[in-house]
């Protein structure tokens, strides 16, 4: 795999009431860029469109509130991943944390891409490649698929 191309662009995102606002650098022109849908309990019920941010320290900036500590967190199961929701409008913004799989620790930082503000140049969710994961079965070795795994949905 080649490294990401050299033209990431900065986009703004927000929850519905705009209490939570952020910027994120994404390289949407990179052929390897893709969004994910997953059939696990939290992704399905939030209908989350995930985009993994490999380097959040560089690429992600919270504009409001001052700290993620002010955005309520929800954890479940192993409680290693924090899901952050706006406490006014209820929109799922992002999740991050670590999880262990087959003895290895993986770090994850993933925005809910439907919180990206629309009408930004170069941003058209209809053109995105979306691939499907089998989180419900914790089947992380499976290739992300073109169709949802059982228990998942397209939209
Ligand atoms: Zn809100």
Automatic annotation (TrEMBL):
Domain of life: Eukaryota
Pfam families: GFA
Family annotation (InterPro entries): CENP-V-like, CENP-V/GFA, Mss4-like_sf
GO molecular function annotation: carbon-sulfur lyase activity; metal ion binding
Keyword Secreted included in the entry's annotation: no
Keywords from the named record: Metal-binding, Zinc
CENP-V/GFA domain location: 11-129
PANTHER family reported in the protein's UniProt record: CENP-V_GFA DOMAIN-CONTAINING PROTEIN (PTHR28620:SF1), CENTROMERE PROTEIN V (PTHR28620)
Family indicated by similarity: Belongs to the Gfa family.
Protein name, per record: Glutathione-dependent formaldehyde-activating
């Amino acid at each position: 795999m080649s490294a990401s191309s050299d033209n990431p662009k900065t986009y703004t995102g927000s929850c519905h009431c705009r209490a939570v606002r952020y910027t994120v650098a994404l390289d949407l022109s990179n052929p390897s860029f893709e969004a994910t849908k997953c059939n696990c309990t939290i992704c399905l019920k939030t209908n989350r469109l995930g985009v993994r941010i490999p380097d959040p320290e560089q690429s992600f900036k919270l504009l409001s509130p001052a700290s993620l500590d002010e955005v309520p967190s929800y954890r479940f199961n192993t409680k290693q991943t924090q899901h952050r929701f706006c406490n006014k409008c209820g929109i799922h913004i992002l999740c991050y944390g670590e999880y262990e799989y087959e003895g290895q620790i993986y770090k994850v930082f993933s925005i809910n891409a439907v919180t990206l503000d629309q009408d930004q140049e170069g941003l058209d969710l209809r053109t995105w490649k979306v691939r499907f994961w089998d989180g419900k079965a914790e089947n992380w070795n499976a290739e992300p698929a073109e169709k949802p795994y059982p228990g998942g949905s397209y939209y």
